[in-house]
Structures are given as structure tokens and as C-alpha cells.
Amino acid sequence: MNNNKKIIVITGPSGAGKGSIFEAIMKKHHKLLGFSISATTRPPRKNEENGIHYYFISNEQFQKFIDDGAFIEYIAPKDKPQRWYGTLTSEVDRVLNSGKSILLDIEVVGAKNVKKVYGRNSLIISILPPSIEELSERLRKRGTETREQIEERIMQASLDEVALHNIADAKVINDKLPEATEDTEKLVLNFLTSKK
Ligand code: 5GP
């Protein structure tokens, strides 16, 4: 890979606010950071476009990418065929070759695999909710999940937190979004300007 370019991963449990932090930093630092378009088997939501937000592909296409070794990292649980996600090597190369570093918003397993591939050229930042109770409250208020789905997410969040403990280079507690965004931004900029 292009040696002076870096990959920064924002990860953490669903509902911790990593999406909002990711978007704010991308918007502010679009000259430094590029967006790698992931592939997914989930259907597009309203306002999402193929080739802009994601490459929306079939499970067969996704499997072919796996077989061809086209992913840097991916997650493809057999029991959730509509929740497969992966970062394409071609996308990462496209962004790095344009002279930018990359900011990824991916889940915990993916973050772990990016670290394996990019080692010290990558920084893993985990965004965590102040507490499991607060996370539960936020998910409930968001109103997009059923009670069972919230329970499943809470359980997953606890597991993610344990997994992240071992791999994250830095941790940001998202108590108040503006502060958490600022803290994350500082970590990103420090890493980008450090000499490894
Ligand atoms: P959504 O379906 O809401 O866009 O994303 C759901 C989850 O998938 C988020 O936690 C997001 O971070 C994760 N995700 C998005 N793209 C990728 C990817 O390429 N690889 C992995 N491992 N996770 C991803």
C-alpha cells in the first residue's frame, strides 16, 4: 500500500453515535479524508444510491468477491444474509491513490481485521455509550427497532465492548455529541500528522 497514507476506523456498538461523529469529521476534513464505498447485501434505504453510499449487491456477488479475495475485511453471517458488509481493496486503493487517507465506519469484527492488515498504519477508535442503560434509552427513543431487536443490540453492544477493549487504540465516550466529535477529531488529526 501507499506507505504514508493511513486508515482510521471508527467503530463501536450500534446506537453509540459513531455514524454522526463519522459524518461530521468527513464533512469537515474532506480534503484529507476519503470515503471508501463498502459493498453490502442489505437493500438500499430511501435516499441511498448505489455507488455513492454503498455498492448494493446480491449474496452471490458478495460470495464471489469473498472467493476472489476482493475484500480487505468483511462480515457475512450465514443467518443474516441481508447484513453482509465488506470493504473492497479496490476502493481503499482508489482513495489512497487519490492522495487522501481513509476514514471507515465499520463494525467491530471488521475493525479487528483492518488492524491485522494495516497494523501501525491504522488507528482504531471505539465510540462507546456512557452506559448500557443510556444506550438502551437511545435505541428506544430512536424508535426504529422492536423491543426484541433492542435487547439483541444491547447484548451485542456488551460483547462488542469486550472485544474492543483488546483492539482499540483509543476510546471516546459519547456522552455529549459535540464533545465526543471534537475528541474524535483530535485523535484523527494527531494520527494523520504523526510520523507513525
Ligand atoms: P448500516 O446498514 O446502518 O449502513 O450499517 C450497519 C453497520 O454496518 C454499521 O455498524 C456500520 O459501521 C457497519 N458497516 C458498514 N460498512 C461496513 C463494512 O464495509 N465492513 C464492516 N465490517 N462493517 C460495515
Automatic annotation (TrEMBL):
Q: Give a GO molecular function annotation for the protein.
A: ATP binding
Q: Which InterPro entries match?
A: GK/Ca_channel_bsu, Guanylate_kin-like_dom, Guanylate_kinase, Guanylate_kinase_CS, P-loop_NTPase
Q: Check the record and name the SMART domains matching this protein.
A: GuKc
Q: Show the GO cellular component annotation of the record.
A: cytosol
Write down the superkingdom of origin. Answer: Bacteria
Q: Looking at its record, which EC class is this enzyme?
A: transferase
What keywords appear on the UniProt entry? ATP-binding, Kinase, Nucleotide-binding, Transferase
Q: Does the keyword Phosphoprotein apply?
A: no
EC number assigned by the record? 2.7.4.8
> Where in the numbering of this chain does the Guanylate kinase-like domain appear?
5-189
> In its keyword annotation, does this UniProt entry include Kinase?
yes
For this chain, the family text in UniProt reads:
Belongs to the guanylate kinase family.
Give the NCBIfam families listed for this entry. guanyl_kin
User: Which protein are we looking at?
Assistant: Guanylate kinase
Can you name the source organism? Candidatus Nomurabacteria bacterium RIFCSPLOWO2_01_FULL_36_10b
The uppermost taxa in this organism's lineage are: Bacteria, Candidatus Nomuraibacteriota
